[in-house]
Amino acid sequence: xxxxxxxxxxxxxxxxxxxxxxxxxxxxxxxxxxxxxxxxxxxxxxxxxxxxxxxxxxxxxxxxxxxxxxxxxxxxxxxxxxxxxxxxxxxxxxxxxxxxxxxxxxxxxxxxxxxxxxxxxxxxxxxxxxxxxxxxxxxxxxxxxxxxxxxxxxxxxxxxxxxxxxxxxxxxxxxxxxxxxxxxxxxxxxxxxx
Length: 194
Prior knowledge:
globular, single chain
């Protein structure tokens, strides 16, 4: 949970990609990635795995940690942590709601095939408190606006050429040129007079 950040719009940003994987549907992964306390059992077993199922386990660890203030599986050393994860037993704090507990029971499942899918999790009762009557719609990225001449003009005054700006944006390079363009499009934070 230490690598989850909130931006000014309360969107979660994941930080610290020291070691990560890129997942393609149908291709199993075999690299141990992430922090051991958040790692799924199949990682400790050295098995090939599907990315989403491992991520669902990690989401369970994160949820448990955010709600309870402690990790569901912990140990004095890696061997002890591994044993606890592979047992899959964790304590439910007395103050945790039944709905939250039920969601955790979908996330922290030893067998990855029986673990909840991302769609099941998004439809879970606890996830939708206050939005029960709304239909679940998939998130779609808004189409980026790469034709903001005001931003491009500012970037030219900063030393970027129009050609490199165009090339970076059209090819979505996610380099310093595109980062500058995107940052210039952000609304400035409100400043208080206190």
